[in-house]
């Protein structure tokens, strides 16, 4: 069995059944305890679980939108306000899924902009604002996460261009890699990156390192990171080497 498949099965077992012992996981997957221990170490490094004596417990996974929307609202609003200030009237903006993009949408009322999104909550927020030309991407609906995904979404994005992309994330690794917990969202995020002139990552302090087993992009694909707290030295160094500007709650850091 491939390591990636084992990792998926381990996380599924932990999220459905709670903490599990190494011996139990070994029996379930038909591999040695030593292999399970190596898998748990790798998954802990990726922020997906916490090892405990004799086993592991899963970290919080991809939560429904309504739950995440109530967390760190003040921090997200600070990030959103700074991000909105980057955009000039008349420009086109791509808004990713997620709650920080939604908080950014709230900052765009009254502006003369084109907003393109796969985020259903962003669409609902801006639908009655007549100053905004609103483009909703097609695709399969992920109801709990209020987003559209799939090949239709990706095809739509290949026909479009935006001045700005404001990208969300589940986690940012010390090497500057942008991660996501949900594999099905990754192709859409990559298509958004290809469709935009400037890519801005919106990431509050909980996203360093955050979670995520699927890589969206590297630091070389970003232009700006907007966050609410100084970035740790290792990650900041990775951004600096890639020429990424880091903006911290109104303060600019190279």
From TrEMBL:
Residues 3-58 form the HTH deoR-type domain. One of its GO terms (molecular function) is DNA-binding transcription factor activity. PANTHER family: AGA OPERON TRANSCRIPTIONAL REPRESSOR-RELATED, HTH-TYPE TRANSCRIPTIONAL REGULATOR SRLR-RELATED. Keywords: DNA-binding, Transcription, Transcription regulation. InterPro entries: ArsR-like_HTH (IPR011991), Carb_Metab_HTH_regulators (IPR050313), DeoR-like_C (IPR014036), DeoR_HTH (IPR001034), NagB/RpiA_transferase-like (IPR037171), Tscrpt_reg_HTH_DeoR_CS (IPR018356), Tscrpt_reg_HTH_GntR (IPR000524), WH-like_DNA-bd_sf (IPR036388). This is DeoR family transcriptional regulator. CDD domains: HTH_ARSR. It comes from the Bacteria. SUPFAM superfamilies: NagB/RpiA/CoA transferase-like (SSF100950), Winged helix' DNA-binding domain (SSF46785).
